[in-house]
Amino acid sequence: MKKQLILEDGTVFIGEGFGSEANTIGEVVFNTGMTGYQEIISDPSYCGQIVTLTYPLVGNYGINRDDFESISPAIQGFIVKEAADLPSNWRNEKTLHDYFQIKKIPGIAGIDTRKLTRIIRQHGALKGAICGIEEDVDTVLEKLRASKLRNDQVKQVSTKTPYPSPGRGRRVVLVDFGMKHGILRELNKRDCDVIVVPYNTTAAEILNLSPDGVMLSNGPGDPKDVPEAITMINELLGKVPLFGICLGHQLFALACGANTEKMKFGHRGSNHPVKELSTGKVAITSQNHGYTVEEESIINTRLEVTHIALNDGTVEGLKHKDYPAFTVQYHPEASPGPEDANGLFEQFLTMIESEIQEGASK
Ligand SMILES: NC(=O)CC[C@H](N)C(=O)O
């Protein structure tokens, strides 16, 4: 079934549809990872976006039961050069096509995704539509240009009610802004007694759970769309150790008086070099973000930049000068991607231990 991909700048690509036959509209973003498509598809931070992969062969090892980052994928659509019909892997359970049919996600294959990526890099983020070949391009373009991107993605993907993920270790309240399961896995691996709470939980409700530390998860959209979370973080600051990832990092920066801005085309992939300023050490990191903390806005705050991106110098990590709190823009839970940054979970737990020691000696 032929389908077309129409970008708001008027570019039209023709390809072959797979997965759901529905039409879709979203912000088109590119990911440069060579593997990890299942983790990408199921990362809730892509809610509202149509994702394209620069790597051309997608679906080769199928979809398995282990690699999901959420139960239900939140992406609007998927664009690939080639979608494998015959995956080969001992863990393979179904093809990309079958999975997308079940989850009602429209896909389009046969697209020159590197050309598409160049267009996005030149123009900056673009809205796009995947639709049937019979649709009139001008009509779709009109609809596309008039369409507004959603601003309630966190509400869509966050848990509606709190739930526990018990352990015998330190208690961590994990605020779910669209959490990747990898974060929960990393905390559970370290025996943390985790309670996952919705994005709009208040600081008082969180403190009532007697946390030893609070984690602020990743999540979709513009951090400024979730003002209630900014208030909550501001009220938690100094009362409990904090660790934030991606959207959690951006919300933390806003709560501390810094600013965030939309990037031209963002960072999405599993090969982004990040430098830790205190040691000069470089880690290869997994990333997925379209917003960033504005560096100049940090000057008037009590924040310190701890990490920067080597590709474009943007802020990749922050810590508070007065309180036990640090955050990173990249994904230390490493799914998909390298495990270079995994030590940050240890850092969080060490911070929790030293706060407990300090409390005991007072
Ligand atoms: N992965 C994330 O948490 C992404 C954060 C935010 N939605 C952004 O695009 O910048």
TrEMBL record:
Its EC number is 6.3.5.5. Residues 1-170 are annotated as: CPSase. SMART domains: CPSase_sm_chain (SM01097). It catalyses: hydrogencarbonate + L-glutamine + 2 ATP + H2O = carbamoyl phosphate + L-glutamate + 2 ADP + phosphate + 2 H(+); L-glutamine + H2O = L-glutamate + NH4(+). Signal peptide: none annotated. Keywords: Amino-acid biosynthesis, Arginine biosynthesis, ATP-binding, Glutamine amidotransferase, Ligase, Nucleotide-binding, Pyrimidine biosynthesis. Belongs to the CarA family. PANTHER family: CARBAMOYL-PHOSPHATE SYNTHASE SMALL CHAIN, MULTIFUNCTIONAL TRYPTOPHAN BIOSYNTHESIS PROTEIN-RELATED. Small subunit of the glutamine-dependent carbamoyl phosphate synthetase (CPSase). CPSase catalyzes the formation of carbamoyl phosphate from the ammonia moiety of glutamine, carbonate, and phosphate donated by ATP, constituting the first step of 2 biosynthetic pathways, one leading to arginine and/or urea and the other to pyrimidine nucleotides. The small subunit (glutamine amidotransferase) binds and cleaves glutamine to supply the large subunit with the substrate ammonia. This is Carbamoyl phosphate synthase small chain. The lineage of its organism: Bacteria, Bacillati, Bacillota, Bacilli, Bacillales. The gene is carA.
